[in-house]
Amino acid sequence: MLFLLAFCWFNPAPAEAGSPAQIVNLRHWTNPTYTRVVLDLSRTADYKYNELPGDAAKGISPRIYVDIPDSTRDLDLASVIEIEDGLLRRVRFGTPKPGRTRMVVDLVTSADFKVFHLEDPYRIVIDIGGNQKPVLSARSPEIRNSPPARSSDALAEVLERSAALEAQERSLPAGNERSGLRRIVVDAGHGGKDPGAVGPNGVLEKDIALAMAKLLKRQLEKDIGCEVILTRDRDVFLPLEERTAIANKVGADLFISLHANASTHRSAYGTETYYLNLSKNDQAAAVAARENGTTLKEVGDLEAILFDLMANAKINESGRLAAEIQKSMISRLSRKYSNIRDLGVRQGPFYVLLGATMPSVLVEAAFLSNHREEARLVTHDFQQNTALAISQAVRNYGVALELLAQR
Predict the structure, then answer these.
(1) pLDDT for 62-104, tens place per residue?
(2) Comparing C-alpha atoms, which of 215, 223, 152, 160 is closest to residue 186?
(3) What is the distance between the alpha carbons of residues 203 and 377, in angstroms, rounded to a whole number?
(4) How is residue 153 annotated by DSSP?
(5) Nearest Cα to Cα of residue 251 among 143, 134, 360
(6) What is the pLDDT of residues 239-256, one digit of tens each?
(7) 27 forms bridges with which residues in the sheet?
(8) Quick one: 216 exposed, middle or buried, by C-beta within 10 A (0-12, 13-18, 19+)?
(9) Are 113 and 4 in contact, with CB atoms under 8 Å apart?
């Protein structure tokens, strides 16, 4: 991950007049290579951050701090939260001056990190990277909420399912040995209170994404023999930052997020695959804004952040995976259906891909806003063919990686 040394101010939006922003919760996810800390706030707020070096002779740890002016801390949120996960020692809250809240993250040793914010609800995310390799096991889930606890049942259950699969110590088919892919996380976009796009006949993107994710899970297990983890297996809401946190936590080799596209122009149709990067055109930015649940201006703000994050992104690998998936989907769907339009591989600043430590892509299978494609998206046949195409692409990608490794 890229080491951010600069003392940085972020003004995401004009602060709302009236009462101070309240820090209502702190959540964190951890594995041997990565810890993500999320601060939940009651409204948008300015913030600044920096790293301070440690002093071993004085017993002072290196630390990262985030200052939030015009803010207060919920009285139910502890002032000191012990973490001790090998990367972080603890998180502390203080008040350096009246009306200003400071969060200090005490590190075990200096580490790469990045800080960014997400909207609706507003939260500040701190990603901290370590030097150890990720372990395949997820026997001890480390997804925690500090009081007052907010619902993360869906996330905890994902990791419990992963731990149960590990405990079975099932053997992997020979195909997996050839592909080199041991674990894949499939993300069904949206869910719960977030329906995603809505088709002209009322079809919801969250339902289509979940159906395709379940089919893709089964297909990948059959074709590749790897373990496949769904970020959600039912209609529940899962914040965007938790989705890549799941993949990072379990040491996934790939992260695939499934979606259905939408446009204000009902005639728009086609299939496209995205990976994380700066958007190359207005259309890509518009798709990112819709999937992020943000405005185009906020997408521009995220792109500014991405300039500082490029060293962390698996851009080349993600691009190759996206190209394999796009080629496979167009090839298979064109044989089964008429009017399959190849919109190609695109790049965009998607929150759901931000922070992934493995190759990651976002698939827009078809336009839910288009009458013809809405009718296809609801059918098991279209969903199954999409899953088959993606699974074949993943298999091809894995075999290609193995061939490269043997050279």
Answers:
(1) 999 999 999 999 989 999 999 988 889 999 999 999 999 999 9
(2) 215
(3) 9
(4) H
(5) 134
(6) 888 898 889 888 899 999
(7) 38, 145
(8) buried
(9) yes
